[in-house]
Amino acid sequence: GAVEWKQTSAKGVVVTGCMAQRYAAELSEGLPEVDAVVGFERYRDIAAHIEGVVARAGLSMPPVVDVGSADVPFRPEWERVRLSRRHAALLRVAEGG
After folding, report:
1. How does residue 97 score in pLDDT terms, banded at 50, 70 and 90?
2. Nearest one of 64, 14, 66, 65 to 43, comparing CA atoms
3. Residue 16 to residue 78: CA distance in whole angstroms
């Protein structure tokens, strides 16, 4: 888990996604090893949060980080490549370890 990662190779642990959005207070209180909890409404600020985590670890970020627009347009449905059969769909609710 996160504790073991931070004791070996990870410089920080950031929790994102719908669980972070919905249970931010519970996650930050119940998981003290987590350095940042960022819900999807704050994805635009995630770079600043990660920079803070890295700085607290005594490291620094590369001088330039360029990932493009935060508003990447989605392709129309008819241009998408289906990865599953027509009668099936993939749904990821949560991930744990």
Report:
1. low
2. 14
3. 30
Beta bridge partners of 15: 37
Nearest one of 45, 41, 53 to 11, comparing CA atoms: 53
Distance, CA of 1 to CA of 13 (rounded, Å): 10
Please report the pLDDT score of residue 78 as a whole number.
67
For residue 1 the two structure tokens come to 């888990």
Query: In this predicted model, what pLDDT tens digit does every residue of 9-50 receive, in sequence order?
Result: 777 888 888 888 889 899 889 988 888 898 888 888 888 888
**Distance between CA 35 and CA 31 in Å, rounded?**
9
Contacts of 56-63 with CB under 8 Å at 24 or more apart are: 56/12, 57/11, 57/12, 59/11
Q: Tokens 């994805």 correspond to what residue?
A: 43
Instruction: Give the model confidence (pLDDT) of 66-79 as tens digits.
Output: 666 666 566 666 67
Count the residues in the chain: 97
